[in-house]
Design brief:
291 residues, mainly alpha, 66% helix, disordered N terminus
């Protein structure tokens, strides 16, 4: 992806540069053909995740003796909000079969389970809330970050969320995109911090709102069963780090032009370092847990 470059007429003050950098990031895709302005990664991930949920829920319905379309609908409606003990046990078996985070299986070499849980969900409420939050965030963030950076942050924070769950919640069977979604929230929070001069009152109201949303979601995990706060915190913290490294930041360069210094084409060594660091983190966690 080429850098977005806009002309700056004069040497800018820090506040003016922050505002112009913020506006340039938001306007990044508006000057492109309409086909390239669609948040393709957001919609592809959403559709793929929903299809995976339809498949796993259908497999669970069959395992419960509910066959055909009507049987699947019966299962989805019956367990839309909460699951009975029997349904939950069968669903857990199905999710484990298709990639849920299960420490025992990961320790036996099934390392792909650090990735697969991002695309698995339990019931209609679970996937509905996660995909609603993801689409609301994704429609804005993908256009601001660009599709490659958006996908990179989503996948890396999702994997780190799985690693955090593996290490700090070893007894839990875990699925869901919420860790990666927390990663996107963390990246967006850092973007606001970096451009705080572009916001009223130094961005405090905007950051306060994000902190409130984060606190409410993490607080919910303290009182509601089957909420993996370890994954949420892991995704959030890694999202903040990746946001600091990769969220758009336009600076004034030669001939008074603004250039995105965090573009992946400029920071590819840091991309490689991030990938290597994630692998090292997984290896360390595996070694400690297996010790």
């Amino acid at each position: 992806m080429k850098d977005t470059i806009v002309q700056a007429n004069n040497t800018l003050t820090p506040q003016e540069l922050s505002w112009l950098s913020y506006r340039t990031a938001l306007m990044h895709y508006r000057q492109r053909p309409w086909l390239l302005r669609i948040s393709w990664i957001t919609w592809i991930i959403t559709i793929a995740t929903c299809l995976v949920w339809i498949f796993t829920s259908q497999q669970t319905a069959v395992a419960l003796g509910l066959h055909g379309f009507s049987g699947w609908i019966t299962f989805v409606v019956r367990d839309a909000i909460s699951l009975s003990t029997r349904d939950n046990d069968v669903l857990s078996q199905v999710l484990v079969t298709y990639g849920a985070k299960d420490n025992t299986l990961i320790l036996h070499g099934q390392y792909w389970r650090f990735v697969a849980p991002i695309f698995l969900h339990a019931n209609a409420l679970h996937i509905g809330l996660n995909m609603l939050n993801f689409v609301v965030l994704g429609l804005v963030l993908e256009r601001m970050l660009g599709p490659l950076r958006f996908l990179f942050i989503y996948l890396v924070t999702g994997i780190i969320a799985s690693i955090a769950s593996f290490h700090f919640s070893p007894q839990d069977i875990s699925v869901g995109a919420s860790g990666a979604i927390f990663g996107l929230v963390g990246a967006y929070s850092i973007f606001i911090v970096a451009h705080r001069r572009a916001f009223r009152f130094g961005g405090i109201p905007a950051l306060g709102w994000l902190v409130l949303i984060i606190a409410l979601n993490l607080g919910l995990g303290l009182f509601v069963q089957n909420v993996d706060n370890a994954a949420h915190v892991g995704g959030l913290l890694s999202g903040c780090i990746l946001g600091w490294w990769f969220a758009p930041l336009y600076k004034q360069g030669a001939q008074d032009k603004l250039t995105d210094v965090h573009n992946l084409s400029r920071r590819w060594p840091l991309v490689l370092l991030t990938i290597i660091g994630t692998l090292v983190l997984a290896i360390i966690s595996l070694h400690i847990t297996n010790a």
